């Protein structure tokens, strides 16, 4: 409930309210904590700061002063009392303004300044730069950028530092991230700064994911592909996921695409632990078999109607395994890859004409659907050509691998669809190509 307060106010005709209000505000004579009030009879009450009513009388006594917004230049002793014809001073009950809420950063910076003063820490530019302007929230855990709270001066505040951070960021645990480790598992370099566990939970498209943020990654950038998978109908299919992780694609296949059974291969033991928890969280553990280890050694063969190869920058090492995992009757391979392309800026009309021409020439051989976000179409037609060329060359490679895996000399490998997931880096695009493999 908003509180009320009785203050002295200047009553002015409503037609002159904004002019007079600006004069008084510029002269720092108003109480900015209160709202203006309609006093009735065509008058508006402007709240005055304490002890300023006499100054206001003098300031508005002569019309020439009304245009003067700086009281320093006004000789109040030479001015006469305000005429009562148009204005008057009165006691008015005002409704106090609600204080403008501070942003989380403002609240954090103010609280840390107080904390630094308490522990005799000089808040210099380095410490100001240590305060994060942004962070990620994972449930009750705040994940800070790498450059935050790196100065040794903060150690003077001990655990009280993290108590302040948790209060301002509305969390109970704090971690700081760094670069991804090159250990083969893509282990995130995340240090838990406050709290006793790094396990967090994330909900995405009605699927629950839990994982230890200090040991596993969550690939939020693959949302478009997860949504596409969710629209598949795999109710009569067996799926193999060669790089299952914590279940980024495994769970959409099971929960939304309703795969009859899924074989999930993953060699990171921390990811396997999270994957098993996630299967239970979503109630689909009875339709999934988890294999821990190198998929080149542990992946089942001749069982899959489709195989997901969700590894970037390249899933090429898994292509022989994926081909062997398909049933002898064939199936679909969803191949993730980072395709590098050279980009030339051209006019939109030239792009559209070029794209239509390239689509026509491709469709003479096989029906290829290429899907990218709308804002990419006008800029990056050369990328699309590169994706198509890469897919065509990969068909030849997959044909050889299918012949080896299934002891057949003739296979038809065709491109069903090319999906642009995201721009991974300048001139590099993460795409998924759907290859249809059929024996002849």
TrEMBL record:
Residues 135-439 form the SAM-dependent methyltransferase TRM5/TYW2-type domain. GO terms for biological process: tRNA methylation; wybutosine biosynthetic process. Keywords: S-adenosyl-L-methionine, Transferase, tRNA processing. GO terms for cellular component: cytoplasm. It catalyses: 4-demethylwyosine(37) in tRNA(Phe) + S-adenosyl-L-methionine = 4-demethyl-7-[(3S)-3-amino-3-carboxypropyl]wyosine(37) in tRNA(Phe) + S-methyl-5'-thioadenosine + H(+). Pathway: tRNA modification; wybutosine-tRNA(Phe) biosynthesis. InterPro entries: MeTrfase_TRM5/TYW2, SAM-dependent_MTases_sf, TRM5-TYW2-like_MTfase, TRM5/TYW2-like_N. The keyword tRNA processing applies. GO terms for molecular function: tRNA 4-demethylwyosine alpha-amino-alpha-carboxypropyltransferase activity; tRNA methyltransferase activity. It comes from the Eukaryota. Its EC number is 2.5.1.114. This is tRNA(Phe) (4-demethylwyosine(37)-C(7)) aminocarboxypropyltransferase. It comes from Mytilus coruscus. The lineage of its organism: Eukaryota, Metazoa, Spiralia, Lophotrochozoa, Mollusca.
């Amino acid at each position: 409930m908003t509180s009320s307060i009785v203050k002295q106010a200047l009553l002015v005709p409503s037609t002159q309210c904004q002019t007079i209000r600006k004069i008084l505000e510029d002269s720092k004579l108003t109480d900015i904590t209160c709202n203006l009030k309609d006093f009735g009879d065509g008058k508006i009450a402007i709240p005055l700061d304490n002890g300023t009513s006499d100054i206001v009388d003098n300031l508005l006594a002569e019309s020439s002063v009304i245009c003067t917004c700086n009281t320093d230049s006004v000789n109040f002793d030479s001015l006469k009392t305000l005429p009562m014809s148009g204005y008057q001073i009165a006691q008015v009950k005002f409704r106090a303004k609600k204080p403008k809420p501070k942003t989380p950063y403002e609240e954090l910076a103010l609280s840390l300044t107080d904390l630094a003063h308490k522990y005799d820490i000089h808040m210099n530019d380095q410490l100001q730069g240590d305060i994060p302007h942004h962070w990620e929230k994972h449930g009750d855990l705040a994940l800070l950028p790498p450059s935050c709270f790196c100065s040794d001066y903060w150690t003077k505040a001990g655990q009280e530092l993290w108590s302040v951070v948790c209060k301002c960021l509305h969390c109970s645990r704090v971690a700081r991230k760094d670069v991804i480790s090159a250990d083969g598992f893509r282990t995130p370099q995340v240090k838990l700064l406050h709290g006793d566990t790094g396990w967090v939970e994330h909900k995405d498209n009605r699927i629950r994911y839990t994982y230890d943020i200090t040991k596993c990654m969550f690939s939020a950038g693959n949302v478009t592909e997860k949504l596409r998978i969710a629209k598949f109908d795999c109710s009569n299919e067996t799926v193999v996921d060669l790089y299952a992780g914590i279940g980024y694609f495994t769970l959409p296949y099971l929960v939304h695409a309703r795969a009859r059974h899924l074989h999930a291969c993953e060699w990171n033991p921390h990811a396997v632990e999270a994957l098993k928890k996630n299967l239970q969280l979503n109630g689909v553990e009875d339709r999934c078999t988890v294999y821990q280890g190198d998929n080149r050694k542990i992946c089942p063969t001749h069982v899959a109607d489709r195989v997901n190869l969700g590894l970037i920058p390249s899933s090429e090492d898994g292509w022989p395994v994926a081909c062997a995992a398909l049933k002898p009757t064939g199936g679909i391979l969803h191949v993730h890859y980072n395709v590098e392309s050279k980009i030339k800026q051209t006019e939109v009309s030239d792009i559209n004409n070029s794209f239509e021409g390239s689509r026509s020439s491709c469709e003479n051989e096989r029906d290829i659907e290429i899907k990218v976000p709308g804002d990419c179409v006008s800029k990056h037609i050369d990328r699309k050509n590169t994706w198509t060329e890469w897919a065509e060359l990969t068909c030849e490679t997959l044909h050889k691998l299918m012949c080896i895996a299934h002891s057949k000399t003739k296979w038809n490998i065709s491109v069903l669809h090319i999906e642009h997931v995201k721009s991974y880096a300048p001139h590099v695009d993460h795409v998924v190509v759907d290859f249809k493999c059929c024996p002849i």
